[in-house]
Amino acid sequence: MTFDLILEGMQACILASLYPYFFLIHCKNFKVVITIVLILIAVLIESRTLFLITLMIYFYLNDKKIKIKVIYKIAFFFLLIALLTNINSDSVFGRLFIWRNILANFLEIPFFGFGPDTFKIKYANWQISYFESHKEYSCFHKLADSPSFAFNEVLHFYIEYGVFSIFIFLLLLIYNSRNALFEKNYLLRICSLSNLIIITISMFSYTLHSIWVLLILIFNHFVILLNKYGLSYHIVFRISIVLTIFFCITFYYQKREVKNMWKYLKTLPINASNEKEKIYIDLFKDLSQDQYFLHDYCKFLLDEKKHAINLSIIHSSKKYFNQFERNLLLGNVHMQLLNYDSAYLYFMKAHLIIPSRFIPVYNLMTVSFQLGDTILAKMYALQIVNMPVKIDNPISFQIKKEAAILIEKF
After folding, report:
1. Tell me, what DSSP letter sits at residue 391?
2. What angle (nearest 5°) sits at the alpha carbon of residue 26, between those of residues 56 and 199?
């Protein structure tokens, strides 16, 4: 399993999971101020998750003080969810599309899953199959992407680890729900509530792939278990802080040199090919499972026309790649090797993974022309001209222009 050390996309989950801890402070005004601050942050970073959970936790922990009937609370939150969903409906329907494809192939998943880091390649194959049988344009053609996560950790880990992952999830959910509802110790109640927030967000995100979110989850369970064995809060807190600091420092120094080397690599000029290659080889030992590094490395090998090494890496590390990028790379390698039939198959796979992207269709048009099939090339040119542009950019404009020229020519 590959963990993400970057905080990007995890701020909302981290803030939401830490929010209950502020209720350990016995100052009503402070709690109100923190709640307002978090709501403002949620608005600024456009996080529906943080906004909803902040309000829900505030009302839950102040239930005895704020007399609102349960039915009105439920109606209020459902109204909020409906309003917030409409703010970014593409995100919501995009995730529903991913879940739909997974559930449609649910019975194919082995009892113990496909194995670690297999989600990307398995899901890409299911999405290809979907678009092969659903050629008529729909909103899903526009929303489809090549995800690295299922945006639902239960489904994601079920694909990779099978029934065992569902058992662990249910165990954590039941244990923390019981503590949050019935535990008399307020600290343990807060810790369990923090865990429930993480578990809830994991149902529509990829929070459990972040090492920082996992640290909070582990810290909370560490506090709960040690506290139940009679250790004082101060001892538990000190041990937890020491272990957390040690863990963070270890990871920081372990990754700092590698990240700095990668940054330096990107600053090298085009003609520094030999130095770049040496650095790429050194970095590969530590970043062989990083999809962004793999793409950069293979793109460099493609530009250098080192096809044997390139194909070896692309095939041996296939499950770690973004599958859209992987098929584009394979198509381009075979294009340079003049294996047009193979190139066509890989570009078609890339197109079926993300039908809204112009580059795979442009490559299919080019390969068809190289194969001497002008009718097929013209068909792809017409498809390009009629394709909607999601975001205006010079590349899309140029591709449409070249497609229009090919149509006029034939």
Report:
1. S
2. 35
Quick one: pLDDT band at residue 7, thresholds 50, 70, 90? very low
- What is the rounded distance in angstroms from the CA atom of residue 225 to the CA atom of residue 28? 29
| Cα 408 from Cα 410, distance rounded (Å) | 6
Give the DSSP H/E element, type plus range, for residue 300: helix 291-303
Q: Report residue 128 CA to chain centroid gap.
A: 19
DSSP state of 210: B
pLDDT one-digit tens code per residue, 55-73? 778 877 775 544 444 545 5
**Nearest in space to 118 (alpha carbons), one of 94, 150, 163, 144:** 150
For 23, counting Cβ atoms within 10 Å of its Cβ (0-12 exposed, 13-18 middle, 19+ buried), the class is buried
Give DSSP secondary structure letters for 301-365.
Answer: HHHTT-HHHHHHHHHHTGGGS-HHHHHHHHHHHHHHTT-HHHHHHHHHHHHHHSTT-HHHHHHHH
* DSSP percent split of the chain into helix, strand, coil, nearest 5: 75, 0, 25
Query: In this predicted structure, what is the pLDDT of residue 77?
Result: 54
Q: Select the more confidently predicted residue: 377 or 46.
A: 377
Residue with tokens 């050629």: 135
Rounded CA gap, 222 and 236, in Å?
Answer: 8
Structure tokens at 341: 């039939």
Residue 258 makes CB contacts below 8 A (sequence gap 6+) with 283, 286, 287
Number of residues in the chain: 410
Q: 170: which residues sit within 8 A by CB, 6+ positions away?
A: none
Cβ burial 337-349 (10 Å sphere, 16+ → b, else e): eeebebbbebbbb
CA distances from 358 to 13, 134, 315, 332, 348 (A): 34, 19, 25, 15, 12
Token output for 75? 């109606």
Is residue 214 within 8 Å of 47, Cβ to Cβ?
Answer: no
Q: In angstroms, how far is CA 212 from the centroid of its own chain?
A: 15
Task: Give dist(CA 256, CA 229) in Å, integer.
Answer: 38
